[in-house]
Amino acid sequence: MRDAEILVGYDGSTDASRALDWALDEARHSGQPVRLAYVFEWLTVAGWVGPGVAPGVWPDDTARRQVEDLVRRAAADATAANPGLTITGQVYDGPPALVLQERSAEAGMLVLGSRGHGGFGGLLAGSTAVAVAAHARCPVVVVRDGDAPSDTSPGPVAVGVDGSEPSQVALGFAAERAAQRQVPLRVLHAWTPGPGGPAGVPDEQAAIEETVEPWRRTFAELDVTVDLVPGSPATMLIEASRDARLVVVATRGRGGLAGMLLGSVSQQLIQHAHCPVAVVRER
User: Fold this and answer.
1) Does residue 258 contact residue 251 with C-beta atoms inside 8 Å?
2) pTM exceeds 0.90
3) Are residues 99 and 222 in the same domain?
4) Which residue numbers delimit the UspA domain (predicted)?
5) What is the largest CA-CA distance in the chain?
6) Distance between CA atoms of 254 and 251, rounded to whole angstroms?
7) Is 230 within the bounds of a domain?
8) pLDDT for 204-233, tens place per residue?
9) Which of the chain's ends, N or C, has fewer CB atoms near its CB within 10 Å?
10) C-alpha distance from residue 236 to each of 107, 124, 156, 267 (Å)
């Protein structure tokens, strides 16, 4: 869905602004339109709505108009700074996680900050991000506090693979981002030494190399490395995120239980990664 818009969860918070910066950087490479989405959850008691928006109670039309102005100004500022991009803003009503999940069905990508306020109801670290990543119908990128979203970051795109079909989808997503930005692609596979020690590593290495080979052919100039790392997948990817510009993971791989929509590795990355995290699933 190369022409589908990049949807950005936006509520005027610092983390939402970082998410918007990341989305605009993605759009400059892909040419996709960007839509700022403020999810307005009506309050039944007086409380915080958003930056520059007065608290109110249902039905607070004044607060709603202030939110619309906030989104309109943010979209206008982003357009002025990026004249080649199509950038719009829209306010939706309802529970934030549910609304974003519904809107993701028509989006090419959904980008969120790890925390927020106002339209995201006092987001704790990863709470709404985990819920949306588990149920969204498009790739979800979570930009954590302090993440560097721009091309000034020289690091590679890192992706975790385990041979499962979901991880192959994540690999394709990662390869496209690395090729767009002309940065290396680092493919990581976690393994646990068996009774025979590292004797099985050559076989695992060959299997991962076979998985990567189609993307080497598709993007002939892409610098690809494959690393097998002993230990847990989450620890491996969190460590790799220290010098990566983006770390990519499937919603769940071979280690996930059949009923789980989001694996423990994805959840740990959303909570602890040092760079933006992309959680990718098949549509």
Assistant:
1) no
2) no
3) no
4) 6-144, 157-281
5) 69
6) 11
7) yes
8) 889 999 999 999 999 999 999 999 999 899
9) C
10) 30, 25, 15, 14
